[in-house]
Every structure is written in structure tokens, then in C-alpha cells.
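Reopening this ticket.

The earlier resolution said the output was attached, but the attachment link was broken on my side. Pasting everything inline this time so it's all in one place.
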Amino acid sequence: MSEQRLLLADTMVVAWYVLDPGRLTDIATSAMEDQTASNYPISTSAYSVVELVYMTEKNNNGITVEEFGAVMEVLDDPDGPFVVVPVDHGIAATVRSIPREFTSGDGATITNADPGDRVIAATAVKHGFSVITSDSKIHGLSTVLGDLDVVWGAA
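Inline output:
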């Protein structure tokens, strides 16, 4: 695994992994399986846990309290596939290097005011993780940040 970067799953990837694995792409699933088969955990940001809590409070596209419990059971399992990475002062400082606004490859201006996206990207940059995400704004960030690698691919 020395040539492949370790993985950081974003909030939706963690939720889908537990609740609806069919929503993950074959590429994402394969990367996650390869990493766990190599005895490396899949990281996720503590900020993603906060976002999961917020998802229980949403009327649309949220998750139930029971679904939250199922996800937390997997995240809390010491023998499970995930490890939660704290948001520390180094990650907080790295957020400053994650642009809030950037120009995409096709020349469009993208504004990403979502703090979660920026914290997840900062976590990946600080730790050298590849991010598993379907989020188009994080994919866009990877085009302007040379040290941000995204894993997803076609569904």
C-alpha cells in the first residue's frame, strides 16, 4: 500500500457504506475494500459525524435517528473499517488554504461556502489522504489543489 494514498471517506460515503452501499461506485467500493484488506482503516473526519447529526434534523434527504445509530455503531466498532480523525488546530489552519471560491476547468466560478467540504478537504491535504466523495465541489477543488486527490469514478 506504500504507493497508494490512504483514504478519507466523506460524510455521504460513510452513510452510504452502512445504509445504502449500492450508491457507492465500483471504483469507490474497490478502493475501500483494497484498503481494509491491507489492514488499513478508512478515515473519516470528526466533522462528518457532526454532519450526520445534522442529517437527523433535516426534513429532506436526511437520515433517521435509527439510521444514525447504525452508522455510529460501525464508526465506534474498534474492529470496523473506519477510524474517526479529529479536527485539530492543524486541520483548522489548513482550511485557510482551501479556496472558498475557485475557477473550474471550464472557466466557471465555483463558490463553496460549505464548511464541511473545506474541513474534509483540509483533513485530506494535511494527512495526505485521497478523498472518497461524490461531491462535485470537492471534485472541483481537486482541480485547483495539486495535493488533493479524489476517488469516485462512474457509478
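Reporter confirms the inline version is readable. The two ends are 24 Å apart (CA to CA). The mean pLDDT is 93.
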